[in-house]
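Late entry, evening session. Most of the bench is empty. Finally got around to the prediction I had been postponing all week. Sequence below, unchanged from the version circulated by S.P.
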Amino acid sequence: ILPMLMDVNDIMKILPHRYPFLMVDRIIELEHGKRCVGIKNVTANEPFFQGHFPGHPVMPGVLIIEAMAQVAAIMGYLASDEASRKKVSYFISIDNARFRKPVLPGDQLRIEIETTLNRRGIWGVNGKAYVGDTLVTEAALKATFADAAI
């Protein structure tokens, strides 16, 4: 059993996302502003499996990237000042995304985020997603905190 730093209720106090778009179930490791590890339990009843793909359910790669972004946003939020904590995290770029293995119902996705940049309100991270010890997805992400769009 993995130690848990934050459960889904703690995560929902930070992220504005809600079901079905909340892609992080818990945070199991956190090194302030440097590294964060989150878990997404991929269940057969996820709404996206109905259409992606019938008879051969595969988690969409874009949602794995979104899970990475949400783990990164949690890390950034916890390392930010009070003014930034009142804002929303927005993508700036996604680079070098690689999808190595499909993620299937019943898999547990372990999302590891490491900071590569934190300057002038821009966060850069390298994200890796694993199922067990197998690397399934990786990408370099950049985001910033900004006022919520109306």
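Two things to note before I forget:
The CA atoms of residues 8 and 25 lie 5 Å apart.
The chain has a mean pLDDT of 94.
Will write this up properly tomorrow.
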